[in-house]
Every structure is written in C-alpha cells, then in structure tokens.
Task: structure prediction
Amino acid sequence: MTITIKDEAGINGMRIAGQLTAQVLDYLAPFVKPGVTTNELDQLAEDYTTKVLHAISAPLNYDPSGHNPYPKSICTSINHQVCHGIPNDKPLKKGDILNVDVTVIKDGWHGDSSRMYIVGEASIAAKRLCALTYEALWHGILQVKPGAHLGDIGHAIQKFAEGHGLSVVREFCGHGIGQKFHEEPQVLHYGRPGTLDELKEGMTLTIEPMLNAGRKEIKELGDRWTIVTKDHSLSAQWEHTILVTPTGYEVLTLSEGCPKPPAFVKP
Ligand code: MF3
Ligand code: CO
Ligand code: CO
Result:
C-alpha cells in the first residue's frame, strides 16, 4: 500500500491528461442550458473525448465493486444529488445547479475534474453554495506542498465550509490518481492539521469537496451509484487534479473556461 511518485515522464502524462479533462469541461459549458438532457451532455462528452481528443472516458464501465459497472461517460449530479449522478433523458430546467465530473485517460494517465454549472439563472442560495464550494476547494489546494500533511487539506476545507454554515460530506473523498483512476491516498475533506500522510514532490492527487447547504448525511439511490443528501438540501462539488511540486502545487486541470482562482490565491 504505497503512494505512487510520478517521474518526469509520468508528470508529463498527467499534465496532458489533466489538460484534456479541462477541455471536455470547457467544451460542454455552452450546451448546459434549460431543456438539454444529461444524456445529451454525456453523448457530447463521449464523442469529443474519443473523436477529437483521441482519449478514453474513464467512468464508462468503471466497476470498482466488481458487480455494478458505471453505465455512462460522465457523472451529472443535479441540485440535491451529491455525486455520481447518472445521465438520463430528463431535461435540465432553469435554476438547476449541475455538477459535471469528467475523467479522461490519455496514454494510460488519468485526469479528473468537476465543475458546477448554473442552468439559466439560479437562486442566490444556490449561487452562494457553488461559489463557496469553489473557494473551499482552493483553500485545500493552497495547503499542498512537500512536508504538508493530508490533514492540513481536510482541515482547511472543513474550517472554511463550516464557518460559512455548510456541511462536509464524509463518505466520499479525493484520491491519488495516475495510471489508476483511484490510487492511494484518500484525501479527506475534513480533519486535523498535521495528521495523516505527508505530501511529497511528484505525488498527484485530487481534491474534490462535496458541501451541503443542509446536513452532511447522504444516501445512495436504488441505481447504486447516485448519492443524494438525506435532507434533500442542495449540494455542490468542484474537483481539480493537483501535482505536488518542489515548492507547492500545480493544478493540472486548469483551462480558459474554468473560473479564475479566488482573490485569496496569490499568483
Ligand atoms: N470522478 C469521480 C471522482 O472524482 C469518480 C466517478 S466514478 C464513476 O473520483 F464510476 F461514477 F464514474
Ligand atoms: Co476524483
Ligand atoms: Co471526478
């Protein structure tokens, strides 16, 4: 049970996979409008990934449990859905908030990123949840450097989230990533500073906080993938893939179309 360290070739592979992942999310943005179905977004993502990027959608047939393969190319989680929502034929409606989670494999390397999209225009509360969850992700990212601990990331996210009256989902976490979709370590979005594994140069991991407007408890739907809030409160998530550099972090899944880092992130 070890955390993989990427060498120069691995880092290069991860940079490319991360860029392609961000390109899929950029490509989808103009299609997210009232009336579009998540199955249409899924098909657009699959076609773009395979035909334009010559890459593979990692979620399609992904089967960590060994008896419930994921049936689609992306995850689409709407409103009170926390994560792993399965695309379907129901049209999006104005005011929905949608998380699209894309994982691309290129030359054996994985990139994993998700963003929130607002369908038409949303309520102030929904927009606030999306914006604060994005800030929470960056509070976690800012902890990343050699010698820091995974608990520092979790603590920064939890402190910020709970300080704004939001709750942190416990059952799902970020993860190491590389030639496997989900590698060690687990990257919890709550915790205590100075605890858990120490970060080392060359590690690649995701940070992907799921924050709820209401209580933190979740449940799994009968499709055995979709996770929703137990109290049906809104939930948001943002995800980036991060490289631990000699002095800090490099976000591998940035692109033109992703929102600028919050003002508290110094260039
Ligand atoms: N992309 C998700 C993550 O960030 C995992 C989705 S697994 C799937 O880890 F099978 F639902 F696609
Ligand atoms: Co992930
Ligand atoms: Co993901």
In short: The pocket of MF3 (ligand 1) is lined by residues 59, 62, 70, 75, 84, 101, 103, 112, 206, 208, 225, 239 (CB under 6 Å).
